[in-house]
Task: inverse folding
């Protein structure tokens, strides 16, 4: 059974329209994206399609019946959809698709609503976003809350919105997408920040894999003939094996991109790194010498600083 949420459909349709208009106007995009220019439209469309599958296909209905399917829906919302969305750095394109008056209003927000902008910057700090992402993901795995969302449809929809919302801000930092409201993370910090997203997800799978009793009680149960495999164990295996794949592979791609940039950097000219000053050991100043007229040996007469002692 497919349940249509017309509000979300209107938002998605508007986003697709604005993206198409913005692409035709060719915005100036100064922030590099993870994907080449030719694949950015494919990434955006794929993100919209996966989101439609997660929210409006029979998958959403089956998520209320099978724990393993519910787990799969959560992973699509927190990993696959935002990763595809931000891979092509789409926000500048969406901004260009807006009417001119709306663009002007957004640009003037720091002057017209400075407190609101400062508050938004504070709550979207990378550390705060990671804490919100982890807290939200673990919250919806609480047994009592999980039972509630099976009985009340709007709680399930609230779960989808909060999971996707916190994941969007988290992936915004991972991909270093525009607009940049915070200082750019160092490349290795960014790699670690991406890899850190897999930890809370895989931890849930690890706990459930070693839990012998049934924690979540869903209306339907998956059975595999006479094998002692339950729906909960299948869901735990999905979380453990698949949950962190997108985060881990993104970290690997970011590391590869950084190493490539470092390798392509031009080397310093020999005239710079082979100078007498550059060859001195740290802590030693430039020295002068003279030849002793008695024995002909060179002797250091003055040293500006040797091991911190002036001579």
Result:
């Amino acid at each position: 059974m497919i349940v249509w949420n017309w509000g979300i459909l209107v938002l998605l349709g508007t986003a697709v329209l604005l993206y198409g208009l913005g692409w035709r106007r060719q915005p100036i995009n100064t922030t590099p994206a993870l994907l080449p220019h030719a694949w950015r439209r494919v990434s955006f469309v794929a993100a919209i399609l996966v989101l439609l599958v997660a929210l409006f296909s029979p998958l959403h209905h089956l998520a209320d019946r099978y724990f393993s399917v519910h787990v799969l829906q959560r992973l699509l919302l927190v990993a696959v959809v935002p990763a595809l969305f931000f891979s092509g750095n789409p926000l500048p394109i969406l901004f260009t698709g807006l009417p001119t008056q709306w663009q002007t209003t957004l640009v003037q927000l720091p002057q017209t609503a400075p407190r609101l902008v400062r508050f938004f910057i504070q709550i979207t700090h990378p550390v705060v976003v990671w804490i919100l992402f982890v807290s939200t993901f673990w919250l919806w795995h609480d047994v009592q809350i999980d039972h509630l969302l099976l009985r009340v449809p709007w709680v399930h929809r609230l779960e989808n919105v909060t999971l996707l919302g916190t994941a969007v801000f988290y992936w915004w930092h991972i991909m270093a997408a525009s607009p940049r409201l915070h200082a750019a993370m160092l490349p290795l910090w960014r790699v670690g920040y991406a890899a850190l997203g897999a930890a809370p997800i895989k931890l849930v799978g690890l706990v459930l894999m070693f839990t012998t009793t049934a924690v979540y009680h869903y209306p339907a149960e998956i059975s595999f003939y006479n094998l002692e495999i339950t729906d909960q164990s299948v869901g735990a295996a999905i979380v453990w094996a698949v949950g962190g794949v997108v985060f881990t592979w993104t970290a690997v791609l970011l590391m590869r991109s950084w190493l490539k940039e470092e390798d392509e950097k031009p080397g310093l000219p020999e005239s710079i790194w082979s100078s007498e000053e550059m060859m001195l050991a740290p802590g030693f100043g430039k020295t002068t010498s003279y030849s002793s007229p008695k024995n002909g040996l060179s002797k250091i007469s003055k040293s500006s600083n040797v091991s911190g002692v002036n001579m």
